[in-house]
Amino acid sequence: MALRIIVHEPDPVLHQVAKEVTKLTPNIHKLLNDMADTMYHAEGVGLAAPQIGILKRVIVVDVGDEHGLIEMINPVILKAEGEQLGPEGCLSIPGLNGDVRRHQHITVQGLDRHGNTFTVEASDFLARAFQHEIDHLNGILFTEIAESVYEVPREGRKAE
Ligand SMILES: [Zn+2]
Predict the structure, then answer these.
(1) Which of 14, 21, 47, 159 is deepest in the core (most CB within 10 A)?
(2) Does 133 participate in catalysis according to the annotation?
(3) Which helix (H) or strand (E) element contains residue 130?
């Protein structure tokens, strides 16, 4: 198990666009392992590589549902439907939550660690987590798109 340091606002790396992964090297496997370890250790439900200072299009998500841990490289939203407005937090912005409007259902496609393309149909909170993480890959933080932002105690809120 290897933990990486989660970077916080206002680190400029959080505002940059991450690059596509073109080669699935052992380094990418290690990155995925470390990202999952770091996410679980921080009690988050998702983590994007830029949050540990790596500008690659890699995310991990686990919202505690039947999907379990999802590792996705170069994720792309193929289809988006509906709308939901709900609270969101971020491991890179401790102490703040915001109400963010997101799609209710999405179809997201990417690569697994072996280079196989796979698709996830995500709804509700899982769809929210994916959209939040993919925003990170584009240098967008929830505080930039939230309809309202408010302070919360650090304990007891899900963070991405
Ligand atoms: Zn986040």
Answers:
(1) 47
(2) yes
(3) helix 124-137
